[in-house]
């Protein structure tokens, strides 16, 4: 596979509450994050790469967007507002 066959996408993921920690210092606060992932043209591979990136951060995929950082951040912020109910 050559470099021209690869592209990047942004994975937007959600990490929820982790109530397994015994103290407040060990608990994970919920957040919506984004990660740039290199992917091939195959849709199944893009989905698998997105799931892996989110899983490594302890989250779940909520969106995959094109390789545009500004758009990815706007999407992440909108999803965060919806999930977290920020006003």
The class by helix and strand makeup works out as alpha+beta
Summed up, the domain count is 1
Question: Helicity range of the residues?
Answer: 25-40%
Largest sheet: 3 strands, antiparallel
What average pLDDT do the residues reach? 84
C-alpha termini separation: 46 Å
Fold topology:
Blueprint: E1 7-15, E2 31-39, H1 43-56, E3 60-65, H2 69-84
Antiparallel strand pairs: 1-2, 1-3
Question: Would you give an account of this structure?
Answer:
34% of the residues lie in helices and 28% in strands. The protein has 87 residues and is of the alpha+beta class. The protein has one domain (3-84). A 3-stranded antiparallel β-sheet has the order 2-1-3, sandwiched between helices. It is globular and about 45 Å long. The mean pLDDT is 84.
């Amino acid at each position: 596979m050559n470099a021209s066959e690869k592209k990047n996408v942004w994975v937007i993921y959600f990490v929820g509450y982790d109530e397994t920690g015994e103290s407040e210092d060990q608990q994970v606060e919920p957040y919506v994050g984004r990660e740039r992932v290199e992917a091939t043209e195959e849709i199944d591979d893009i989905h698998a790469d997105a799931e892996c990136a989110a899983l490594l951060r302890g989250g779940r995929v909520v969106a995959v967007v094109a390789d545009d950082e500004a758009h990815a951040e706007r999407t992440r912020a909108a999803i965060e507002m919806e999930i977290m109910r920020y006003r």
